[in-house]
Sequence to fold (50 residues):
Amino acid sequence: MLSRKYFPTVDSSKWVHTQQLAAVGIYYFFNALNSQKKNYWKQYGERIKD
Fold:
């Protein structure tokens, strides 16, 4: 494994856990961003109709 070769002091399970946390955080961030965009366009469309 790469991380063990270059970072022998780093516990590989902690390394994986950190990467999982980062991936989940990014996923939720983009999810929130997309839902905000949809809401914005919905409001924008309603404004145009009025």
